[in-house]
Automatic annotation (TrEMBL), chain A:
Pfam families for this protein: ABC_tran
Xref: SMART domains: AAA (SM00382)
Keywords, in A-Z order: ATP-binding, Cell membrane, Membrane, Nucleotide-binding, Phosphate transport, Translocase, Transport
Full protein name: Phosphate ABC transporter ATP-binding protein
Domain of life: Bacteria
Positions of the ABC transporter domain: 30-269
Name of the coding gene: pstB
């Protein structure tokens, strides 16, 4: 019995069903090769080779502690001072996991939104202008314009257009999270990484946020970590299933949900996990 | 029916825990009363003595605050006692502000290093060092000032070496650890996600420190500086050892001068209770007390504003 179990687990791993997206309309914009992430000696990502299609939404799902956040944070080098990341992270043909990469410039292209809405204790306007001012944009008209378009894209403009100078800390959770999205897209990134952006939000704000993301995918390639299976089903084209630091399955979302190849995935997406 | 009565009995009987709670309240309330009484008594005593200069000895408040010569035992040409406290007030403020101005950048720089740039080294080396420095008695600082700072000042700037400059140097070292450790606390209370948000937007570490962390920590940093100033303003012994104790308007930073505290400590043993000389010293003490109340008030105001942000 024992032996048998072990063997099944191994074959499951070896035959991990990983279909990389091959859609000529949405070429790969980001991919990882031989990626390993270590916290000290502990290996948190052991198998994490994925390709991400441009202008699509890719969902990362999996049980708690499976390494989704670790993986996501490695993609724009937010783990630099926290973990050791080996392997390649190819962004438009360039390995951005190299020491000679200017991470600050890279993060402008690969933006990130966190689980907990984290606006600065500044005005709404200054929150969005923050990254622009860092890059030397001082022209008032230009700033005004970018603040407006970013807020519109994040579907927050109508609610805050008359109080841009109000403290961002006075916003509701859902509004604050949209502000964070507006702040991230103000610098016009290529890729947007989101780590459970809706987990602190109520259902109404969550569905608004999902609509926003569906809009944003016209311009940005989106990778989103979520614990919410319905959410992954609603918004993503591709889904990767993480378990114990490995990608067990990666496929179109409809495949993952209707026809998972690995038993664990099937258990997880149907809610029978553990 | 019976069970209701039983329950009523149980609920109405004062259990041991309930009695203990009453006792606890009584004890802590009396402790509080005692402290309040002591504080009120001190303020009342200092105020009554300090105000006697003006009400019993009929010195005008204006003369006291603006007069430039301090010699309570002597009367001037107009028959008024010489109780001009301006030189001491100026001395105290000068030395406080100068030492705070010098200490602030050092303290914030050290705090940034300890908390942001190298938390490991900060925790291992700088933390124990600052804690040690806080614990050194002020007489030791004064003694070092007397045997090192004063001679160096004398060599560099001439004169006796005693004066505001030496006092400032000693106070700078004395308040530095306090301001530093409070600045570290201020930086530590800035949520970690501010740093992440800033870095994820492509800010460098320096930009993050400068534009996000220091901004968010400003109320805490200001509190740290005001605390340092309060300490500098009230420090007596170390300052008295290096300032020269001349109750004169200081012509320069290297002329002997005095502060409210240094005049108090040197003079209080040489006067008779109830005399003008004695009352005048109490007036200085009253000024000190009021100033420390004002410092406290400022700290509270900053704290409240910080919370409202
Ligand atoms: N800063 C850290 N230092 C050390 N270990 C960490 C750190 N962050 C995460 N880990 C470990 O790495 C593993 C993966 O964690 P990670 O946060 O990536 O999981 P996750 O899939 O995002 O989980 P969740 O769904 O709960 O957010 C876990 O075992 C976790 O304990
Ligand atoms: Mg996570």
């Amino acid at each position: 019995m024992f032996l048998n179990n072990d063997v099944t687990a191994k074959t499951a791993m070896l035959e991990r069903h990983i279909v990389q997206p091959a859609d000529p309309e949405h070429p790969t914009i980001l991919s990882t090769e031989d990626l390993h992430v270590y916290y000290g000696k502990k290996e948190a990502i052991a198998e994490g080779d994925l390709r991400f299609a441009s202008n699509q939404i890719t969902a990362l799902i999996g049980p708690s502690g499976s390494g989704k956040s670790t993986f996501l944070r490695s993609l724009n080098r937010m783990n630099d001072r926290i973990a050791t990341v080996t392997g390649k992270i190819m962004y438009r043909g360039i390995d951005i996991n190299q020491p000679d990469i200017d991470v600050y410039e890279m993060r402008r292209r690969v933006g990130m939104v966190f689980q907990r809405p984290n606006p600065f204790a500044k005005s709404i306007y200054d929150n969005i202008a923050f990254a622009l001012r860092l890059r030397g944009v001082t022209d008032k008209h230009e700033l005004d314009e970018i603040v407006e378009t970013s807020l519109k894209q994040a579907a927050l403009w109508n609610q805050v257009k008359d109080e841009l100078n109000k403290s961002a800390l006075a916003l509701s959770g859902g509004q604050a999270q949209r502000l964070c999205i507006a702040r991230a897209i103000a610098v016009k990134p290529d890729i947007l990484l989101l780590d459970e952006p809706a987990s602190a939000l109520d259902p109404v704000s969550t569905s608004q946020l999902e609509d926003t993301l569906l809009e944003l995918k016209q311009q940005y390639s989106i990778i989103i970590v979520t614990h919410n299976m319905q959410q992954a089903g609603r918004i993503s084209e591709y889904t990767a299933f993480f378990n114990q630091g490995r990608v067990l399955e990666y496929d179109t979302t409809s495949h993952i949900f209707t026809n998972p190849q690995v038993q664990i995935t099937s258990d997880y997406v149907s809610g029978n996990f553990g | 029916m019976k069970s209701t009565e039983q329950l009523e009995q149980q609920l109405k009987r004062h259990s041991k825990a309930a009695k203990l709670e009453i006792w606890g309240k009584v004890v802590s309330f009396s402790a509080l009363l005692l402290i309040v009484a002591v504080v009120v008594a001190i303020i009342g005593f200092v105020a009554s003595k300090g105000l006697a200069t003006f009400f019993t000895n009929h010195v005008s408040l204006w003369d006291f605050l603006s007069g430039k010569s301090w010699n309570p035992g002597v009367t001037d040409a107009h028959g008024k006692p010489e109780v001009g406290a301006l030189p001491m007030i100026v001395g105290s403020f000068l030395i406080t502000i100068l030492s705070a101005i010098i200490a602030t950048p050092f303290a914030i720089g050290t705090a940034v290093f300890m908390n942001e740039i190298s938390p490991n080294k900060g925790a291992k080396i700088l933390q124990p060092v600052t804690e040690l420095l806080v614990g050194i008695p002020s007489v030791v600082y004064g003694f070092i000032g007397l045997s090192v700072v004063v001679p160096v000042t004398r060599t560099l700037f001439g004169g006796s070496g005693f004066g505001i400059l030496s006092g400032t140097c000693v106070l700078f070292v004395m308040i530095l650890p306090t301001v530093t450790s409070m600045s570290v606390d201020a930086l530590r209370s800035v949520p970690r996600y501010y740093r992440e948000a800033s870095l994820a937007l492509g800010a460098t570490q320096w930009q993050t420190i400068y534009k996000v962390i220091l901004r968010a920590a400003t109320p805490g940093l200001m509190t740290a500086v005001v605390f340092g100033m309060a300490r500098a303003f009230g420090e007596a012994l170390a300052v008295q050892m290096v300032i020269g104790n001349a109750a004169l308007m200081p012509g320069s930073l290297v002329d002997p001068a005095s502060t409210l505290t240094s005049v108090l400590t040197t003079g209080i043993g040489n006067t008779v209770m109830g005399s003008l000389q004695n009352n005048a010293l109490w007036s200085l003490a009253l000024v000190l007390l009021l100033m420390s109340l004002i410092f406290n008030l400022i700290i509270r105001l900053i704290g409240r504003k910080g919370r409202l942000q």
